[in-house]
Amino acid sequence: MRIGVVTFPGSLDDHDARRAVRIAGGEPVTLWHGDDSLLDVDAVVLPGGFSYGDYLRAGAIARFAPVMSALIPAAKGGLPVLGICNGFQILCESHLLPGAMIQNDHRTFICRDQRLRVENATTAWTSDFMPGEEITIVLKNQDGQYVADEATLDELEGEGRVTFRYVVEEGGHNPNGSYRDIAGITNRRGNVVGLMPHPEHSVEAGYGPSLDGLTFFTSVLKSVVNA
Amino acid sequence: MTFVAKTNIDTVEHASTTADTQQPWAALGLKADEYDRIREILGRRPTIAELAMYSVMWSEHCSYKSSKVHLAQFSENTTDEMNAKLLVGIGENAGVVDIGDGWAVTFKVESHNHPSYIEPYQGAATGVGGIVRDIMSMGARPIAVMDSLRFGAIDHADTLRVLPGIVAGVGGYGNCLGLPNIGGEVVFDSCYQGNPLVNALSVGKMRIEDIHLAKASGVGNLVVLFGAKTGGDGIGGVSVLASETFDADGSAKRPAVQVGDPFAEKVLIECCLDLYAAHVVDGIQDLGGAGLSCATSELASNGDGGMRVWLDRVPLRDTSLRVEEILMSESQERMMAVVEPAKLAEFMAITKRWDVEATVVGEVTDGKHLEVFWGDEQIIDVPPRSVAHDGPIYNRPMQRPAYLDALQGNVPDDLARPADGEGLKAALLSLMASPNLCDKSWITGQYDRYVMGNTALATPDDAGVVRVDEETGRGVAISTDCNSRYAKLDPYAGAQLALAEAYRNVATAGAVPLAISDCLNFGSPEDPGVMWQFAEAVRGIAQGCRTLGIPVTGGNVSLYNQTGDVAIHPTPLVAVLGVMDDVARRTPSGWKATVSGESDQAIYVLGTTADEFGGSAWTQVAHDHLGGLPPRVDLERERQLGEILVGASRDGLVLAAHDLSEGGLAVALAEASLRNGFGARIWLDEVCERDGVDAFTLLFSESTGRAIVAVAATAEARFTDLCMATGFAHARIGVVDGEAGALDVQGHFTLPLDELRTAHTSTLPAIFASR
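ok -> structure tokens follow
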């Protein structure tokens, strides 16, 4: 099972995503931003980082990279795609997912172990979770506040496309001001998933807060087999 | 690029015929005798370009002219045995240590104090960028950073001005670079008002055969400048900023601060690693302080021939820069490589793949001089060693400060101490909420500690621990420490206490300490009292390292840290690096549940406690007092303690371990409890009786050579055997109690963890958070 991980200039978690694929039992394949080929992979991860420095707007330049000209139609055709953090931002900029990410409401970078609730366990990347399951994975971002207009948010909720929500204690705030505590969403078909937290940092005992991130990768390996 | 003609260039030829021209040596930070010496070396007046080059390279920051005579003690105290693990020592961009299995690590800590005062965000950001390039230039992949930050009083206006920017700069640069920030310190003390300290550390890894050095050799080899274009930022940063004291009436020095682009540096890292892997780099040097002046003169000085450089080939952001400005610019994200002509095409193909601009700017010659041209006109013709290595050396006057007797005589023995359990509880709460001991996650949460996926421990654990080899788990632990209040009371002991604490922290995490780097932050070397402090601290570190058997691999000296006549406390920061066979076995600092509900965990305190409150956190928080002598240092005892902690970790005997330092046993117990929300029941009587101290002293004294550990009931016998084998003092003082939700010091007080957590975590957000 070949899972591609795209390296943009400024990608940071590409190596980690490839490691996670390997630990889950897949074969990681390096995809280069400047090539317009997906090398026949079975799924793609857009990793975290600061593609092209993110000096304009997170993901705004990466969206135009040659590799995206191959990825966007493939994703529309059903190829499983996971966008993590900067990858999520790129998916929004590419209009593969609705909404946008803006700066955290507290205006500072945040890195912490974050509890999430799995709201949709039917996507290509979440099928090994139980619906409603709570997981803890790493969150780290500067521009992690998910925003969209009310109609879009209602549509996402109505169609069950909110995939992950931040678990917020009563009276508390979610970590970045995301509307309706949304941490991750999917497209209608359920093959494209974007989320701010980082499953690839929670796949090995001793490194990261849990092993919950591994389930993303085992999920997609199964869904590719079943497809 | 197109050749831009410069008018009125001061050529070597012109300089030879115009001996009487007045030159701005004083404005460039040179002293009269230094200028005379340059004329003597050259046998004529220097050109303005040569003057610029000497001025930055002979600055305090680059030449270590006031500190060199003392720093020699580091190598004098290094035995052959200590050197055995050292692959590259002092004098290169960073030292390199053999950690086994063919792996080498390089690490170094460096100051960026003055730029961070002027422009907090860029000053701190480029501090991170600069140290990371030092690591890259050894041939290594950077794998982590740490930052030790020191600010004025937490509620002082200057702290409010600089802290948010410095923290955002450290985070903004390091996060975008993709390097985990695994530790460091945040210290508040009014002595740093107007002079914050930003000491940045980076560590990198490589295979031993991949070590690269900064030297230009091989006649006909090409000198390639690559990375960012050269601009007008940071001109004279090392001479004007880092080597002078600020005075209130001085002109604004903003143009001397560099501006960082972490994205460019991230690309540069990956590009360099591809260049190393392709074996197309013969010699390499980063461009940091003193920019092209430093890179060209050091490469040429370390090589076996001369070097010729055409400055007009340097890609510029601003074509109006004068030649001397191009030579002094500290524009960031630039590197200089020496490349064999046959390998140039491959070199260029790799830089192109990463969209990194690379330009051949010169060549290695069979001459003896560094020659720099603008077009056809020669503007520099100097012996490179005279610039890079044979700068002035000062043996400055030293004098033990007159105030020291009174300071050391002002012992803390008569300060009012808590009389009962309620008083002890209140003292612990106030310490845990105090600026230096409170929870720092408002700051450290702005740093990515997880990127690269190799972080096994990070702050607030005792040491940062990262994996080096993904196959075996072999990795390193690092801790940086300095208590400058101790160093103020006694700089020799203070430096050794910094060494002892960093050593202890690394061992507490389970790693064998291997080597140190240091960052020596002091006031003006022109003050004999400061110079005495400096010499004492260096002597302390050098002799301490000899006792512990670990070498100094390199480091950095930052002088002129003072405002007006008032110097900062001497701050000899020590970073100790240790190695572990498998970092997954590291020992965390907090109590935690055992696997499958294993039975009780006992808490042991290792070491003995005496009444030692000089410079302690309690005297600062409770009485705003600084006086007496710092705790006694016993490095032999530290070594024994380290062996027990490392052995216990290796044999799986301890579930948690935490070192005892500022705030003593009470603070260590509170931190270990808060880490994962597990309380403890503690009894003190037996140890009080053994050590002849009362409960207050046992809880808050800062005696050294101590740690607490949590041991599973099933491992207690083996653990106590381990301690008894070397006769090391150990006592069972309690048990971990996950149910109680409190730190219960029996017979004295019970402190609910919720109350403790609220006190501990509220301090920084109350002052700095926007929400």
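The two ends of chain B are 50 Å apart (CA to CA).
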